[in-house]
């Protein structure tokens, strides 16, 4: 049963870029309704456990706000990437986030730079170079590729800034608060830009609901649940299958071609992440937030 749930979680988490493409709406509209729906579904739990927030110090509250702002920026750039480059490139570039998290841990917490870490970055660098090389240009999907890399970097910032608070709060309380903050950020930016919040076809609402329920709650919740029964290395390796599922979904739904260059880029980046996440002889600890997307 755990492996079946793991397969379902990977399937859910492999499709966000396709749902975004299907939504065909402004970034702020997709982001606001997705986060508002997810946060609304978590609000009963957030309210029931509101006493947990009373024990947080001012620093932890500030870190929660910082995590929310970084998560908003991550989602904004990810949606932009999904709308401005191939789904495959978007998903492959986002898979670099464990490497950015490792770099942040080295800079912020003084973790040593090992040969294994250096090898991981060399492989990931080769993957990024392969993906962006050749005929790459800012005009031909290049902005989307860069946005996907920025999304991975911002997601790592969200993970690192929230580690301390996650130790003091349960997942539902933390996620609910962050999701509401992110929804308000999308609302503020969209209002400033004058976007229309309603009046879209049913396909847009179906795609946004899929992002909120299937990806934000379904995929992430299943991964968090599986942490109690499945080895974290297996979870981390399974997440590397997400770009494959995303690329196949884009090929089936939108006729997006499967390019060899993207396949080689994925192979290099996946190898780098595996080198980083699979130290010999012991399992790698992970925070549930590191498995989210």
Structural write-up:
By secondary structure, the chain is mainly α. The protein has one domain. Helix content is 76%, strand content 0%. It has 13 helices and no strands. Helix 5 (87-94) packs parallel to helix 8. The radius of gyration is 18 Å and the shape is globular. The two termini are 23 Å apart.
Summarize, please.
This protein has helices spanning 2-13, 16-23, 27-48, 58-84, 87-94, 97-109, 115-132, 138-166, 171-193, 202-226, 232-239, 242-254, 260-277. It is mainly alpha-helical.
Topology of helices and strands:
Layout: H1 2-13, H2 16-23, H3 27-48, H4 58-84, H5 87-94, H6 97-109, H7 115-132, H8 138-166, H9 171-193, H10 202-226, H11 232-239, H12 242-254, H13 260-277
Write a concise keyword list for the protein shown above:
293 residues, mainly alpha, 13 helices, 0% strand, disordered C terminus
Overall domain count: 1
What's the helix count?
A: 13
Supply the helix-strand structural class: mainly alpha
Query: Biggest sheet, open or closed, and with what strands and sense?
Result: none
Molecular shape:
globular
Gyration radius, to the nearest Å? 18 Å
The first-to-last residue Cα distance is 23 Å
Helix content estimate: over 70%
- Please state roughly what percent of the residues sit in beta strands, choosing from under 5%, 5-15%, 15-25%, 25-35%, 35-45% or over 45%: under 5%
**String of helices and strands:** HHHHHHHHHHHHH
What is the multimeric organization of the chains shown? single chain
Quote the average pLDDT.
83
Number of DSSP E strands? 0
What are the low-pLDDT stretches, counting only 5+ consecutive residues below 50? 281-293
């Amino acid at each position: 049963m755990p492996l079946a749930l793991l397969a379902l979680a990977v399937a859910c988490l492999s499709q966000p870029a396709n749902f975004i493409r299907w939504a065909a709406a402004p970034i702020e509209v997709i982001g606001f309704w997705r986060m508002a729906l997810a946060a609304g579904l978590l609000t009963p739990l957030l309210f029931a456990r509101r006493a947990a927030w009373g024990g947080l110090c001012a620093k932890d509250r500030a870190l929660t706000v910082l995590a929310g702002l970084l998560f908003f920026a991550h989602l904004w750039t990810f949606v932009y990437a999904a709308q401005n480059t191939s789904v495959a490139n978007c998903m492959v570039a986002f898979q670099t986030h464990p490497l950015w998290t490792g770099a942040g841990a080295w800079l912020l917490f003084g973790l040593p730079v090992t040969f294994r870490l250096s090898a991981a970055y060399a492989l990931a660098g080769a993957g990024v170079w392969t993906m962006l090389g050749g005929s790459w240009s800012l005009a031909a999907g290049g902005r989307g590729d860069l946005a996907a890399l920025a999304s991975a970097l911002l997601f790592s910032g969200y993970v690192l800034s929230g580690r301390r608070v996650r130790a003091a709060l349960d997942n539902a309380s933390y996620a609910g608060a962050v999701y509401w903050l992110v929804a308000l950020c999308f609302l503020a930016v969209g209002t400033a830009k004058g976007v229309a919040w309603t009046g879209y076809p049913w396909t847009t609402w179906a795609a946004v609901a899929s992002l909120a329920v299937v990806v934000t709650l379904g995929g992430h919740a299943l991964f968090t649940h599986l942490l109690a029964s499945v080895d974290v290395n297996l979870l981390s390796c399974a997440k590397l299958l997400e770009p494959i599922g995303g690329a196949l979904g884009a090929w089936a739904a939108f006729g997006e071609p499967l390019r060899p260059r993207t396949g080689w880029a994925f192979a290099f980046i996946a190898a780098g992440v595996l080198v980083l996440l699979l130290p010999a002889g012991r399992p790698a600890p992970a925070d549930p937030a590191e498995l989210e997307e």
